[in-house]
Amino acid sequence: MVCEERMSIPSDEDEPYVLNLRDSCRNTCPRRTGPGRLVRLMKLTEVVQIDATYKVTWNGYPLMLVGTTDQDRAFHPFGVAVCKSEHTDDYEFIFDAFHRADLQWKPKVLLADASEAITASFRRVFGEPSVRGMCYFHVLHNIEKYLKILTKNGVCGHIKTDLAVLQMCENKAT
Q1: Using CA atoms, how far apart are residues 58 and 168, in angstroms rounded to an integer?
Q2: For 2-134, which CATH class?
Q3: Is residue 86 within 8 Å of residue 62, measured between CB atoms?
Q4: What are the residue ranges spanned by the domains of the chain?
């Protein structure tokens, strides 16, 4: 299998390698981790972002991308995973692989869509996040059709502006 061939740590820190692998029977294969550039950069942040897309795989499985964003809003990926689903166990497997790469790394901020599976898996691996942010893009994407209806009826006004302000507000009650 190609994945198993990529489990050894390359000497070039920019060459990709497999951090962890699980077969279809959900058995964890032997884990190998090392000082790749992305894993090294991962340790510098307390913020983790995760999302899945189905648009880049031909087999219908979700491709999950994990990373962080810097102060200039540039996204820095830690890694990707292809899973059979988006269940809590799948996200937990991903978070656990990164946690095992550095047991001292404990991100405090989680940014993702509204998936309870993501939140639950983060809690299992890292504990309760200090901040659980919602991806603003997903919010806007999900309400866009309603905004079009309101705009046609002349009711829309400043709704997008109000949402932009609200998305910056803290809500400690979860």
Answers
A1: 37
A2: alpha beta
A3: yes
A4: 2-134, 135-174
* Structure-token pair, residue 46: 């307390």
For residue 119, what is the DSSP state?
H
Residue pLDDT, tens place only, 130-168: 988 887 777 777 787 777 777 766 666 677 777 777 777
What's the whole-model pTM score? 0.71
Contact criterion met (CB below 8 Å) for 111 and 48: yes
CB 50 within 8 A of CB 91: yes
Please state, in angstroms and rounded to a whole number, the distance separating the CA atoms of residues 137 and 75. 14
Calpha distance 70→68 (Å, rounded): 7
> For 83-132, how does the pLDDT look when each residue is reduced to its tens digit (9 = 90+)?
889 999 999 999 998 888 888 889 999 999 889 999 999 999 999 999 88
- What Cα–Cα distance (Å) separates residue 106 from each residue in 84, 102, 121, 122, 130? 26, 9, 13, 10, 11
Q: Which amino acid is at 158?
A: H
* CA terminus-to-terminus distance, the chain: 43
* Assigned token pair, 106: 């404990």
